[in-house]
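Progress report, Aim 2. The chain analyzed during this reporting quarter is listed below.
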Amino acid sequence: MRPDMETRGTRTDAGWRDHDGFVGPRQPGTGPRSDPRGDFPTGPAVGDAMPDVRCVSADGTRFDLHEHRAGRPAVFVFYRSAVW
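Predicted structure tokens for the chain:
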């Protein structure tokens, strides 16, 4: 584990609560993903065209972004999971 990775958390009946209030199945800093601080790709800039992507909605539905919006403008929201 990197020494600068956030590991503060409180064990609860629902899992681990991090210092931002998110609850996940693992103690902060010990999940299968990395801590994104520092140089980290964040995706297209505001106003840039989205690449061809296949997406999964918050409810688990899979869809093709460009096919789904059919040429209409769209707002695409990225959000972090409870475990990075």
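Helices lie at 65-69. The chain has a mean pLDDT of 76. These observations will guide the mutagenesis work planned for the next reporting period.
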